[in-house]
Design brief:
By secondary structure, the chain is of the alpha/beta class. About 35% of the residues lie in helices and about 20% in strands. Strands 5-4-3-6-7 form a five-stranded mixed β-sheet, sandwiched between helices. Strands 1-2 form a two-stranded antiparallel ribbon.
Length: about 230
């Protein structure tokens, strides 16, 4: 039994992606599959730094329907300050799968035309696009498409206009959600999902006409590269 963000619903915790419609002009929000994603990395430079952890969880109508989550063996040592921040040590990742394997499995999980969601999602998408290119997996480049993505930070900036900061923890606290393990990918994904569905709920209360994924995209606007 999975716990829906909208209540207790039956579901499954699998790593199998479901088909996602390539166009969401008329796709109702409650029928859309949102793939909420987060990376942990050794630094901020996508060309030089490495991925240490990936989590992607798919939700429909607030219910978890699938999960992909793994540590990744990085191509460089994890700096001490990053280890302190994330809690991910070099010892933890020494036997983790190589990035090329993780990227291939992640691409299979998200499917051909996913709706990607994240907090500062342009960072995650930019990192993934760089890494699929570096690893000879450019065939998967368009699976991580910023033009189809939602950023919970941008949505929060447009919806919760009086916050002192729009960092994930601050936004989560404002909506009453507690992230007990920040800077770990799965915990941050669940936080971003909680933010997404709470903001949708509030927006629909203000505007009952906000019903489709395209309506939400029109509200957010086009995301820019990080």
């Amino acid at each position: 039994m999975q716990q829906s963000l909208f209540g207790s619903l039956a579901g499954s915790d699998t790593a199998t992606a479901e088909p996602i419609a390539p166009s969401f002009d008329r796709l109702p929000l409650e029928e859309a599959v949102f793939t909420v994603l987060d990376l942990e990395t050794t630094g901020l430079n996508a060309k030089k730094c490495a991925i240490t952890e990936v989590t992607a969880i798919q939700y429909r109508n607030g219910q978890e329907i699938g999960k992909f989550s793994t540590l990744v063996k990085p191509t460089e040592p994890i700096p001490e300050e990053v280890e302190i921040l994330t809690g991910i040590s070099n010892d933890m990742v020494k036997n983790a799968p190589a990035l090329i394997m993780v990227l291939s499995e992640l691409a299979g999980f998200v499917g051909e035309a996913p709706i990607i969601v994240g907090h500062n999602v342009s960072f995650d998408i930019g990192f993934l696009q760089e890494k699929v290119t570096q690893n000879g997996l450019s065939v998967f480049f368009n699976r991580f498409d910023l033009s189809r993505a939602f950023c919970t930070k941008v949505l929060a900036q447009r919806t919760l206009t009086s916050l002192p900061s729009y960092e994930g923890i601050v936004v989560a606290t404002a909506i009453g959600y507690h992230n007990d393990n920040p800077h770990r990918a799965e915990a941050d994904v669940r936080m971003s999902a909680a933010i997404l569905f709470e903001l949708i709920k509030r927006l629909q209360a203000q505007d009952p006409g906000l019903r489709t994924v395209q309506n939400l995209m029109d509200y957010q606007g086009v995301l820019s590269e990080r």
